[in-house]
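Why does residue order matter? Because the sequence determines the fold. Keep that principle in mind as you read this record.
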Amino acid sequence: MRILLIEDERGLADAIAKRLRQEGYAVDLAFDGEEAIGFADAVEYDVLILDLMLPVRDGMNVLRELRRRGNKTLVLILTARDGLKDKVAGLDAGADDYLTKPFSFEELLARIRALLRRKGLPQNTVLKVGDLEVNPATRSVTRAGRRIFLTAKEYAVLEYLMYNSGLVVSRTQIEEHVWDYDFSGASNIVDVYIRYLRRKIDQDFSPKLIETVRGQGYRLRVPE
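Structure:
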Protein backbone atom coordinates (compact mmCIF):
# COMPACT_ATOMS: atom_id res chain seq x y z
CA MET A 1 0.00 0.00 0.00
CA ARG A 2 1.31 3.46 -0.88
CA ILE A 3 1.12 6.43 1.47
CA LEU A 4 1.84 10.12 0.97
CA LEU A 5 3.13 11.68 4.20
CA ILE A 6 2.81 15.48 4.20
CA GLU A 7 4.83 16.90 7.09
CA ASP A 8 7.16 19.92 7.14
CA GLU A 9 9.17 18.84 10.21
CA ARG A 10 11.73 16.77 8.34
CA GLY A 11 13.05 14.90 11.36
CA LEU A 12 9.56 13.77 12.31
CA ALA A 13 8.67 13.00 8.68
CA ASP A 14 11.77 10.83 8.28
CA ALA A 15 11.06 9.00 11.55
CA ILE A 16 7.44 8.25 10.62
CA ALA A 17 8.39 7.22 7.09
CA LYS A 18 11.09 4.88 8.39
CA ARG A 19 8.64 3.12 10.71
CA LEU A 20 5.98 2.86 8.02
CA ARG A 21 8.49 1.39 5.56
CA GLN A 22 9.54 -1.15 8.16
CA GLU A 23 5.88 -2.19 8.22
CA GLY A 24 5.96 -2.73 4.46
CA TYR A 25 4.28 0.47 3.27
CA ALA A 26 5.65 2.49 0.35
CA VAL A 27 5.97 6.09 1.54
CA ASP A 28 6.51 9.34 -0.37
CA LEU A 29 7.27 12.58 1.47
CA ALA A 30 5.99 16.10 0.76
CA PHE A 31 7.20 19.01 2.90
CA ASP A 32 4.81 21.78 1.88
CA GLY A 33 1.23 22.07 0.69
CA GLU A 34 1.97 22.87 -2.93
CA GLU A 35 4.30 19.88 -3.25
CA ALA A 36 1.63 17.69 -1.65
CA ILE A 37 -0.95 18.62 -4.28
CA GLY A 38 1.56 17.86 -7.04
CA PHE A 39 2.25 14.40 -5.60
CA ALA A 40 -1.45 13.66 -5.10
CA ASP A 41 -2.21 14.65 -8.70
CA ALA A 42 0.54 12.40 -10.07
CA VAL A 43 0.07 9.19 -8.07
CA GLU A 44 -2.92 7.17 -6.89
CA TYR A 45 -2.24 6.84 -3.15
CA ASP A 46 -4.08 4.61 -0.74
CA VAL A 47 -3.81 7.04 2.18
CA LEU A 48 -2.61 10.63 2.71
CA ILE A 49 -1.27 11.56 6.15
CA LEU A 50 -1.63 15.34 6.36
CA ASP A 51 -0.22 17.87 8.81
CA LEU A 52 -2.23 21.09 9.06
CA MET A 53 0.58 23.57 9.76
CA LEU A 54 2.42 23.53 6.44
CA PRO A 55 4.34 26.20 4.51
CA VAL A 56 3.19 27.59 1.12
CA ARG A 57 -0.32 26.10 1.56
CA ASP A 58 -1.62 24.99 4.92
CA GLY A 59 -3.09 21.55 5.35
CA MET A 60 -6.70 22.69 5.40
CA ASN A 61 -6.19 24.49 2.10
CA VAL A 62 -4.59 21.35 0.64
CA LEU A 63 -7.48 19.19 1.79
CA ARG A 64 -10.13 21.50 0.37
CA GLU A 65 -8.28 21.80 -2.95
CA LEU A 66 -7.91 18.04 -3.33
CA ARG A 67 -11.59 17.49 -2.63
CA ARG A 68 -12.50 20.32 -5.03
CA ARG A 69 -10.53 18.50 -7.74
CA GLY A 70 -12.42 15.31 -7.06
CA ASN A 71 -9.54 13.52 -5.34
CA LYS A 72 -11.14 10.92 -3.06
CA THR A 73 -7.99 9.51 -1.48
CA LEU A 74 -8.47 8.71 2.19
CA VAL A 75 -6.97 11.47 4.36
CA LEU A 76 -5.73 11.12 7.92
CA ILE A 77 -4.96 14.49 9.52
CA LEU A 78 -1.98 14.22 11.88
CA THR A 79 -1.50 17.50 13.74
CA ALA A 80 -0.74 19.23 17.02
CA ARG A 81 -4.04 21.13 16.76
CA ASP A 82 -6.15 19.28 19.31
CA GLY A 83 -9.08 21.66 19.75
CA LEU A 84 -12.60 20.43 19.08
CA LYS A 85 -13.20 23.18 16.52
CA ASP A 86 -10.07 22.12 14.61
CA LYS A 87 -11.21 18.48 14.54
CA VAL A 88 -14.70 19.41 13.37
CA ALA A 89 -13.30 21.74 10.69
CA GLY A 90 -10.90 19.07 9.42
CA LEU A 91 -13.56 16.37 9.21
CA ASP A 92 -16.06 18.75 7.61
CA ALA A 93 -13.44 19.73 5.02
CA GLY A 94 -13.22 16.13 3.88
CA ALA A 95 -10.75 14.34 6.17
CA ASP A 96 -11.55 10.71 6.97
CA ASP A 97 -9.80 10.62 10.35
CA TYR A 98 -8.03 12.97 12.76
CA LEU A 99 -5.13 12.08 15.07
CA THR A 100 -3.35 14.56 17.33
CA LYS A 101 0.34 14.81 18.25
CA PRO A 102 1.95 13.42 20.30
CA PHE A 103 0.69 10.05 19.17
CA SER A 104 1.41 6.35 19.52
CA PHE A 105 2.81 4.78 16.38
CA GLU A 106 0.77 1.67 17.08
CA GLU A 107 -2.39 3.79 17.05
CA LEU A 108 -1.32 5.40 13.77
CA LEU A 109 -0.90 1.94 12.22
CA ALA A 110 -4.31 0.85 13.54
CA ARG A 111 -5.97 3.94 12.06
CA ILE A 112 -4.29 3.34 8.69
CA ARG A 113 -5.58 -0.24 8.70
CA ALA A 114 -9.07 1.02 9.56
CA LEU A 115 -8.94 3.52 6.67
CA LEU A 116 -7.85 0.80 4.24
CA ARG A 117 -10.83 -1.29 5.32
CA ARG A 118 -13.08 1.72 4.77
CA LYS A 119 -11.69 2.01 1.25
CA GLY A 120 -13.69 -1.07 0.36
CA LEU A 121 -11.08 -3.67 1.17
CA PRO A 122 -12.38 -6.72 3.04
CA GLN A 123 -13.71 -5.90 6.49
CA ASN A 124 -12.79 -9.24 8.07
CA THR A 125 -9.59 -9.27 10.11
CA VAL A 126 -8.05 -12.25 8.31
CA LEU A 127 -7.78 -12.34 4.50
CA LYS A 128 -8.28 -15.82 3.05
CA VAL A 129 -7.67 -17.35 -0.36
CA GLY A 130 -8.03 -21.11 -0.25
CA ASP A 131 -5.84 -22.34 2.60
CA LEU A 132 -3.71 -19.18 2.51
CA GLU A 133 -4.40 -16.73 5.33
CA VAL A 134 -3.02 -13.23 5.91
CA ASN A 135 -3.69 -11.21 9.06
CA PRO A 136 -3.10 -7.50 8.33
CA ALA A 137 -3.18 -6.61 12.03
CA THR A 138 -0.29 -8.92 12.94
CA ARG A 139 1.19 -9.23 9.42
CA SER A 140 1.28 -12.99 9.89
CA VAL A 141 0.92 -15.45 7.01
CA THR A 142 -0.02 -19.13 7.10
CA ARG A 143 -0.80 -21.73 4.49
CA ALA A 144 -2.49 -25.00 5.41
CA GLY A 145 -1.87 -24.02 9.02
CA ARG A 146 1.88 -23.67 8.50
CA ARG A 147 3.46 -20.32 9.44
CA ILE A 148 5.27 -18.62 6.56
CA PHE A 149 7.84 -15.93 7.27
CA LEU A 150 8.07 -13.07 4.78
CA THR A 151 10.19 -9.95 4.52
CA ALA A 152 8.37 -6.61 4.69
CA LYS A 153 8.36 -6.21 0.89
CA GLU A 154 7.33 -9.81 0.28
CA TYR A 155 4.45 -9.27 2.66
CA ALA A 156 3.46 -6.01 0.95
CA VAL A 157 3.33 -7.67 -2.47
CA LEU A 158 1.34 -10.61 -1.12
CA GLU A 159 -1.10 -8.37 0.76
CA TYR A 160 -1.76 -6.38 -2.42
CA LEU A 161 -2.42 -9.60 -4.33
CA MET A 162 -4.72 -10.79 -1.53
CA TYR A 163 -6.74 -7.57 -1.57
CA ASN A 164 -7.12 -8.05 -5.33
CA SER A 165 -7.57 -11.82 -5.31
CA GLY A 166 -9.09 -13.16 -8.51
CA LEU A 167 -8.13 -10.01 -10.42
CA VAL A 168 -5.21 -9.51 -12.77
CA VAL A 169 -2.86 -6.79 -11.53
CA SER A 170 -0.10 -5.43 -13.73
CA ARG A 171 3.54 -5.14 -12.78
CA THR A 172 3.11 -1.36 -12.82
CA GLN A 173 0.17 -1.51 -10.40
CA ILE A 174 2.14 -3.69 -8.00
CA GLU A 175 5.24 -1.51 -8.23
CA GLU A 176 3.29 1.72 -7.69
CA HIS A 177 1.59 0.37 -4.58
CA VAL A 178 4.60 -1.32 -2.99
CA TRP A 179 7.58 0.87 -3.90
CA ASP A 180 7.93 4.65 -3.54
CA TYR A 181 9.67 7.39 -5.52
CA ASP A 182 12.99 6.71 -3.80
CA PHE A 183 13.17 3.21 -5.25
CA SER A 184 16.07 2.82 -7.67
CA GLY A 185 16.34 -0.94 -8.02
CA ALA A 186 16.09 -3.25 -11.01
CA SER A 187 13.28 -2.85 -13.52
CA ASN A 188 12.26 -6.48 -12.97
CA ILE A 189 11.85 -6.06 -9.21
CA VAL A 190 8.20 -7.20 -9.26
CA ASP A 191 9.11 -10.44 -11.04
CA VAL A 192 11.88 -11.03 -8.51
CA TYR A 193 9.50 -10.72 -5.57
CA ILE A 194 6.87 -12.88 -7.24
CA ARG A 195 9.54 -15.61 -7.50
CA TYR A 196 10.35 -15.18 -3.81
CA LEU A 197 6.67 -15.53 -2.92
CA ARG A 198 6.18 -18.59 -5.11
CA ARG A 199 9.01 -20.36 -3.30
CA LYS A 200 7.42 -19.63 0.06
CA ILE A 201 3.68 -19.98 -0.50
CA ASP A 202 3.39 -22.18 -3.60
CA GLN A 203 6.43 -24.43 -3.96
CA ASP A 204 5.49 -26.92 -1.22
CA PHE A 205 1.72 -26.59 -1.51
CA SER A 206 -1.12 -27.44 -3.84
CA PRO A 207 -2.87 -25.94 -5.67
CA LYS A 208 -0.55 -23.22 -6.92
CA LEU A 209 -2.11 -19.83 -6.22
CA ILE A 210 0.06 -17.24 -8.01
CA GLU A 211 -0.63 -17.18 -11.74
CA THR A 212 1.22 -15.35 -14.49
CA VAL A 213 -1.16 -13.82 -17.03
CA ARG A 214 0.96 -13.41 -20.14
CA GLY A 215 1.28 -9.82 -21.27
CA GLN A 216 -0.85 -8.51 -18.38
CA GLY A 217 0.64 -9.30 -15.00
CA TYR A 218 -0.21 -11.59 -12.10
CA ARG A 219 -3.28 -12.97 -10.40
CA LEU A 220 -3.84 -14.69 -7.07
CA ARG A 221 -6.16 -17.50 -8.11
CA VAL A 222 -9.16 -18.24 -5.95
CA PRO A 223 -9.56 -22.04 -5.82
CA GLU A 224 -13.03 -23.36 -6.71
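Residues 105-118 form the longest helix (14 residues).
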